[in-house]
Amino acid sequence: MAGENDLGRLLGELLDAGDSVEGDGGDEGGPSGDVLGDLLREPGGIGIAIGTELIEDLIQQLRLGGLGEQARSWVSADANEAVSGEEIAQALAPEELDEAAERAGMSAAEAAERLARILPQAIDGFTPEGDLPEI
To answer: Strand (E) positions, the chain?
Structure first.
């Protein structure tokens, strides 16, 4: 079962891996493809089962925070809809954004801006069939 700050931890790790996700700004998911899957499979990491649960929680949180259509587009085969850092900051729980920012060594505002660029491609790469992977 996921711990209290695991989503913040996962987002922080994603921020650290952000350069490989952002790539050249193309819409093919960045050069590393399934960067979330890679992070979740790392030895000593969160793990694929807990990570998938966390991503489900993240998507639900984004939906409840007013980003339902955008989050749906990242999971589906449709084009990824963009979000702003301000929208991400409003949708995420403040403690999770703060945890992610602290882990990545940046301010919460910087983390939100970077997550706005990273999350669409990262979630899209983790859900190539339009659904979260079966565990």
So the answer is: none
**CA–CA gap between residue 52 and residue 20 (Å, rounded):** 20
Does the predicted model carry a pTM greater than 0.85? Answer: no
Alpha-carbon distance of 80 to 96, in angstroms, equals 23
pLDDT in tens, 5-46: 788 988 998 998 876 665 544 444 443 467 888 888 777 777
Between the alpha carbon of residue 20 and those of residues 4, 39, 121, the distances in Å are: 27, 12, 11
Q: Which two tokens stand for residue 14?
A: 């994603």
Element (H, E) at 48: helix 48-62
Looking up tokens 């939100």, which residue turns up?
A: 112
